[in-house]
Amino acid sequence: MTIQSFIRRGALAGAVVVSLGLAAPAMAQTFPVKFYGSPGQVLKQGPIVVPSYELAFFTQQQGTASGGVLTKSRLTTTLSNVPEATMRKLADEAHADLVAQLKAANVPMADANDFKMKAMSAGVPYAPANSEITQIGRTITIGAGVATAYAAFGATEAPIISGLHAPTNSPMGAMNSLGVSRKIAPVVQAQKSVAIMPLLAIDFADTDAKGGRDFLGREAANVSSRLKFSINMFSKVSLMASFNNGRASSPGLMALGGKEIGVPTAFGTVLTGEGAVRQMSVTQVVNSSYIAQDAARGDAVVVDLPVWEGLVRQAFKDYNRAIVAEVRKAQGV
């Protein structure tokens, strides 16, 4: 099965398209991950357990802009050539790497299998098929906006806990996370452990959409996009720790502070017009040269799989290294 993703395309005062451009030539890259917040008091409370490791891949981006009733533009791009089996394998590798880095740093560890048994008894919800796959539905765009979709997979030994986190800033998602955290709390209390539950979200493009009027006062609808491999800003690490010898618990969070971490390595080829696209109410617009053009276009990004996999591996190794550094600092190991 191939998971696909979409990227965006733009128009000015009629649909002047801004094409996607490939990044710089391939070269060795690292991801300088830095977490924000103060997780030390949570991380220092006991042995570490990693009961859930979620690796999410953005698979679709859709930029839409409106400058008026008859001036609209949409670009949708699909990430292709990445099998679901590859994504699941990388989730397993990411989890295994974090556990290995923790053990290499002599961090005390709690039993993940024991945690899962206690969690199931406590009603902690696990995601069906250990995955969450979203699609972009119909949206109402006033001015301009960018919609996204993703495919998330949990490690086999550290599956997705449903509702714990998602690579979005949805208020409903925050409420769901709070409810799930309450179910995790008694599990860490019983185990007297500190649960580390990462969400690492991998993105593939950078889209910008603007609607309104240009400098001449004409209606304008601009959507532009470029390929960019990055750790998405919504990546985070949820924490839950036992306090007072199991008599209490406290949540925690390690986040990227609203910053994405990207690299310029080229990892794919854009096939213009080869991706799926949801059409608009305005199917064509007339540009400044009085030429009719499509208002919406879908492009496909064909991934160079070995290069892309290498970037994902480097991303999770650097991400995990930053997690371990926070644990070592808190626990003094």
Structure in a nutshell:
This protein has helices at residues 40-43, 84-104, 112-121, 171-191, 305-331, and strands at 2-3, 48-49, 54-68, 71-80, 82-83, 131-133, 144-154, 194-213, 219-231, 236-243, 248-255, 261-263, 268-271, 284-286, 292-294, 296-303. The protein is of the alpha+beta class and 333 residues long. The strands form 3 sheets. Strands 2, 3, 4, 6, 7, 8, 9, 10, 11, 12, 13 and 16 form a 12-stranded mixed beta sheet that branches.
What does this 3D model show about the protein?
The chain is of the alpha+beta class and 333 residues long. Helix content is 25%, strand content 35%. It has five helices and 16 strands. It has helices at residues 40-43, 84-104, 112-121, 171-191, 305-331, and strands spanning 2-3, 48-49, 54-68, 71-80, 82-83, 131-133, 144-154, 194-213, 219-231, 236-243, 248-255, 261-263, 268-271, 284-286, 292-294, 296-303. The strands form three sheets. Strands 2, 3, 4, 6, 7, 8, 9, 10, 11, 12, 13 and 16 form a twelve-stranded mixed beta sheet that branches. A two-stranded antiparallel ribbon has the order 1-5. The protein has a two-stranded antiparallel sheet with strand order 14-15. A hairpin with a 4-residue loop joins strand 10 (236-243) and strand 11 (248-255). Helix 2 runs parallel beside helix 5 and helix 3 packs across helix 4 (171-191). The protein starts with a strand and ends with a helix.
